[in-house]
Amino acid sequence: MADGEVPVVDKTAPDMSRGGCAKIIGVIWNTKHTSGDLGEDQEQIVKRTFRELIIYLVFLIIVCIIAFGMASTNMFYYTKVMMDLFIEAEDSQGVSFRSITSVDDFWKFTRGPLLDGLYWDKWYNGQDLPANTEGYIYYENKLLGVPRLRQLRVSTNSCTVNPEFSTFITDCYSMYDRDLESTEPFGDPSATNNDTAWMYRSEDELQGFPYWGKIEFYSGAGYTRDLAINRQDSAKIIDDLKSKLWIQRGSRAVFISFTVYNANINLFCVIILLVEFPATGGAQPSWSFNTVKLIRYVSDFDTFIMGCEVVFCIFIMYYVFEEIIEVFATGLKYFMDFWNVLDIVLIIMAVVCIVFNVHRTLTIVGTLEELLKDPLAYANFESLGFWEMRFNNMVAITVFFAWVKVFKYISFNKTMTQLSTTLSRCAKDLLGFFIMFFIVFLAFTQLGYLLFGTQVNDFSTFMNSFFTLFRIVLGDFDFHQLEQANRILGPIFFMLFVFFVFFVLINMFLAIINDTYSEVKSDMAKQTDVFIMSDYIKQGYAKFWDKIGFRREKLEGYEQILTGELAGKKMNVTAWKEELVKNGFDEGDIEEVFTKFDVDGERILDVAEQKQILDELQRLQHEDGGGKKKKGEHENDDEEDADSDDDGGKGAGDSVPIDEFLALTRRVDRMEGTLRSIVKNIDHVLQTLVYLKK
Asked: Does 232 map to a domain?
């Protein structure tokens, strides 16, 4: 440095703290994107991918334990028992909830099967139950609080009567709509006596929850009447509502809701029975049985699940930091990778599940405390049951995506490469095909809806028509319904749809996939083999057995062949394989050893080459049988290999380790494939020049 020259400080050089952080990140979050070295050797990429796969498999096991720990076959049987009791049970006149078609059927159901199912006050032999066992369904399921009846109505003259009929049609009640919902008291004021059954209460007052029925989407408000804790009082309430015409022309929906709890299996069943009364008249029953596990941590197994949930949260934090690092490392290119987008979706869904799990645990505690304060009040579990089912659905989707993500780590497999390459190559063709397919499909959907929507249930709505046509594609159809709806247009519609969609479009789709797959398979057959994950696993397997002494058995087998009948004679690869296969050796290992010592490449081991193998075997056997080395000798085999390499290959027994030899062989093969491709292109150019000269 010259006198007076100011030393320049390199501001771009990382300090020790930044270097330490980068080193920690490189060790913990060592992925393809975080390493920043995308042009490294294929073997290193496979090793890194294998490490990611092992970590992810642990995460996947934790996810599956949590998901299946929340579900059990008891949920199905619990739901089935409750449905059989309240949906299928009939009264003396054969009326069940499923068969309700009128208001009269509704009252028969509530007075018969409903009360029979809710109140079990006698044993099967007719004896009265003890007082402390009242309120149990099937003697095992505790009815929480009391059941509730809730009605939604529409206002009078909520629709317009045609002037030509206004002289003899005075009242008009529209289909249900929240804007047309009646909020005024109804019935005889002197008879109702300000009863809640005749007074409207808002959704906030009832702490209600919207419900999607078969016909409409209903609010959580309405006119409510809670039943009693025993059968006699509940029967009087139902008889009183029936006699005072609680259900009238403006009634559009009546809900029967209650919750039962089984302590034996720690499950809640939130039951909602809905009867809709459309403006057309009649009645349409539907139901919802949400069997959920709201109290999560009771048994020892539940405690184990809680521990797995803690580990799951740690994994989510790990992957959140990993994705943040990858975004900073790659920028916007990060979002162009499908697997990265899937990672983000998985993390978002997992975080939502964690938040809901905490919220559910806190909410259920408050709800149960309120219920214990007033056991005769209605137990409002509708919202909790609904969101718990949505939570279970999200967990199921998360597990599904988690299993799909496994393909990200096994993409080095040849079959997976063929699949992914096929889909990527034909993506544009498939996009064009799907546009054409859905134009034709939606045209047939609208045609079926307009032609048969008034007579055939499968075409009664646009969505029903859409899914019915998909079922036809899969072979599930009822041709006679179409024929009965329209004897001429029905068969014509069916034949045209089958011809254009099934015979033409579906076969076009298969042709696109098959043609692209054939091209990909042909191209991959021309490529030289690359280092794949199976190679890495086999290599690790071989090293493992070498370390525990299995190598000695191999060495003794090779030595027997070289000192046996074929000793002193030239030995070709066929004879070499036959002798070793008889002794149970793997053909891949046999070929590797033969190729390693066949220096001249004639596929024949001469006497000198056989002697070289024997020298190598003796050296390796000496290493395996030498036990602990004396002080001053090499401390491990890796140092001996390094010393042998430093000697410059002196001596007949010096050799390259087998894994390095295989790696070099693969690189040479790839180089040969590249050169072959270059020569082929040059030859093509020369032929083109000759053609142009002519």
From this structure: yes
- CA torsion sign, 248 to 250 to 256 to 257? negative
Q: Do the Cβ atoms of 231 and 115 come closer than 8 Å?
A: yes
Span 254-290, pLDDT tens digits: 999 999 999 999 899 999 999 999 988 899 999 999 9
659 appears as a binding residue in the annotation: no
On the 0-12 / 13-18 / 19+ scale of CB atoms within 10 A, 472 is: buried
598 is in an annotated binding site: yes
Task: Give the Cα separation of 220 and 224 in Å (integer).
Answer: 11
Strand partners, 143: 260
Q: Which of 364, 389, 412 is the last residue of a domain?
A: 412
Six-digit token string for 271: 């039951």
Residue 466 sits in the same domain as residue 352 = no
Tell me, yes or no, whether 263 and 244 share the same domain. Answer: yes
CA–CA separation, 558 vs 609, rounded Å?
A: 13
In this structure, is the dihedral angle defined by the CA atoms of residues 662, 668, 671 and 673, taken in order, positive or negative?
A: negative
Q: What six digits make up the tokens of 595?
A: 């190729």
Per the structure, the count of domains in the chain is 4
* pLDDT 10s digits, 206-240: 988 899 999 999 999 999 999 998 889 999 999 99
Domain closes at, from 377, 412, 447 = 412
Q: How far apart are CA 268 and CA 379, in angstroms?
A: 12
Cα 494–Cα 500–Cα 504 angle in degrees, nearest 5 = 140
Read off the pTM.
0.68
The CATH number linked to 504 is: 1.10.287
Q: Is 609 a known ligand-binding residue?
A: yes
Evaluate whether residue 664 is within a structural domain: no
CB 605 within 8 A of CB 597: yes
The residue segments making up the domain with residue 450 are 416-526
What CATH number should be reported for the domain holding residue 587? 1.10.238.10
Closest CA to 503 of 477, 473, 480: 473
407 pairs with which residues across the strands? Answer: none
